[in-house]
Amino acid sequence: xxxxxxxxxxxxxxxxxxxxxxxxxxxxxxxxxxxxxxxxxxxxxxxxxxxxxxxxxxxxxxxxxxxxxxxxxxxxxxxxxxxxxxxxxxxxxxxxxxxxxxxxxxxxxxxxxxxxxxxxxxxxxxxxxxxxxxxxxxxxxxxxxxxxxxxxxxxxxxxxxxxxxxxxxxxxxxxxxxxxxxxxxxxxxxxxxxxxxxxxxxxxxxxxxxxxxxxxxxxxxxxxxxxxxxxxxxxxxxxxxxxxxxxxxxxxxxxxxxxxxxxxxxxxxxxxxxxxxxxxxxxxxxxxxxxxxxxxxxxxx
Length: 301
Hints:
Elements: H1 11-23, H2 26-33, H3 37-51, E1 56-59, E2 62-65, H4 67-98, E3 100-104, H5 107-116, E4 124-126, H6 136-141, E5 147-150, E6 159-174, E7 194-198, H7 204-211, E8 216-220, H8 223-232, E9 237-240, E10 258-262, E11 269-277, H9 281-294
Parallel strand pairs: 3-4, 3-5, 7-8
Antiparallel strand pairs: 1-2, 5-11, 6-9, 6-10, 6-11
Helix pairs in contact: 1-2, 1-3, 1-4, 2-3
């Protein structure tokens, strides 16, 4: 029973107001809402009554919004959007209780997740395509994903982040090449070379393109094609410390003819974090423990 104070406004009244503001007439608003014009008229009067304000300037054969009405439209749009987002969050969270969705903004963590896949519960789904780095917070808060791996520590009031390990880049060179005779190397030492690179290399693409002077990069969409080219050509190619766990697109290394040389520039290493909602901490704890147990050391160990 209502006992005073602020009223809760019916969502359909807010929708009628917003549609009227966009169409400009009660008739067009009714048509778009698939109701009769008298229904909209009654709804607008009810809204004015509940708010205790005048939202419309009524003239013969014409009705327009007052300044208060225009403000009410803006607030109604916010409330409608918030209501839809709340429903979406609740529905996504409910789905997440049955299915746990894992994603990553980088290819390396996807390799590790797939390596663990056989030991993970059956209700876990791994997103094979990389997520956009700026979408993590939104996707977690909406309940679209239970856990997202990234090079970002996104700790906040609702999100927890835990450090998992380092992904470090290495270059694979034919031992006959001059640059292959060092235990480590830097991007600058790889200048003027041409490289084979998986198309889905993610954030590493910008790093190698910006860090290696006068280099050429041949991006391959299919791992199978990349593997075949590597078998029979002498193009250098990149791997990381997590590459040995790749059960899907592992690039073959020719026995005895290839040297894997760690790249020691600062931007050749990425700290990897797992991000999840604080309320999901207990659900993801075992998964995080598994990630920590299998994540490979970087090349400095």
